């Protein structure tokens, strides 16, 4: 249960940070969803490039980059509305 709560909180933080960088405005739950899914994208890309995260800050950066990529992909599909 604690793991789920931490995942949601970190996902919300990552989604919020990516939303700031990408100038995207959506609610708390969408931030959580984008942050969690974007984390998987970020770690997938990091693994392909051979980048390892050794600290919380490195993990956070990888998560934010993945979420920014996800937001850019969604914008391409849905248009500028997102």
Largest sheet: none
Total helices: the number is 3
Terminus-to-terminus distance: 31 Å
Mean pLDDT: 84
Q: State the low-pLDDT regions, or none.
A: none
Strand content: under 5%
Report the order of strands and helices.
Answer: HHH
Indicate the radius of gyration in whole angstroms. 12 Å
Helix content: over 70%
Shape: globular
Class from helix and strand fractions: mainly alpha
Number of strands: 0
General description of the model:
Helix content is 80%, strand content 0%. It has helices at residues 2-22, 28-49, 56-78. Helix 2 (28-49) crosses helix 3 (56-78). The longest helix is centred in the C-terminal third of the chain and has 23 residues, at 56-78.
Chart the SSEs and their pairings.
Elements: H1 2-22, H2 28-49, H3 56-78
Helix pairs in contact: 1-2, 1-3, 2-3
């Amino acid at each position: 249960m604690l793991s789920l709560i931490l995942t949601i909180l970190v996902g919300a933080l990552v989604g919020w940070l990516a939303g700031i960088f990408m100038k995207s405005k959506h609610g708390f739950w969408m931030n959580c969803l984008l942050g969690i899914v974007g984390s998987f994208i970020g770690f997938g890309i990091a693994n392909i490039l051979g980048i390892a995260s050794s600290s919380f800050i490195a993990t956070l950066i990888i998560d934010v980059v993945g979420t920014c990529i996800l937001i850019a992909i969604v914008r391409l599909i849905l248009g500028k509305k997102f």
